[in-house]
Amino acid sequence: MSQEELVAIQADKVVDARGTACPGPLLAAKKAIAEITSGQVMEVLSADEGTKKDIPKWATKKNHEYMGTVEESGFFKIYLRKA
Amino acid sequence: MPKRMTMALFSGSIDKLTAAGVVLTGAAADDMDVDIYVLLQGARAFRKDVAADATKLEMAENPQLKQEFLDSLKKLNVNPWLEFFREAKELTNVKIHVCGLAGKIWGAEKMEDFNELVDDIVGISEYITAAQESDVHLFI
Asked: Which InterPro entries does the record match to this protein (chain B) (predicted)?
């Protein structure tokens, strides 16, 4: 998915985990994805460098779709579609 | 069937307990079943009065940096060690078993002597059996 397409996504749920370090964002993502339904999109905001690899890996393992990551200034947004 | 992890938690030092908590969180996010066997020093950390007061725990390595470690955790908004265990228990099937002998060494013989996160007091054979059957086994 291109950056333009990702930026245009209206996520069904936004999780702002910028205040936490690993494993905070993963934990927040794990909890929040339970609150959306299959096919819905979740956006995770984080400034924790390790999370950039961690959440896509976790999501793929759990059969969710990792749609991509968008860099912002000082943080990034990870887009996931729930399995 | 979910994957299983067993952890022999020997350490009662705040740095290792924090690391154990982070690993545990990863396993919980992965929906693993986890059995933690709390051994010697670990049993003291789970004693009710010690669990309630992190200042009663020391560092395993670089003891002179304890304050810097605690300050950094606070600044990074990282939970106190026990909260990792609490959160993991909320997320997945995590059981905390305390070694009976270890508890006795620290004057904690009954369930009410331990923090409420502890599930039971067990003997060594239960730990060995669980470790044999698990997919991941750690000693911390």
From this structure: DsrEFH-like, Sulphur_relay_DsrE/F-like
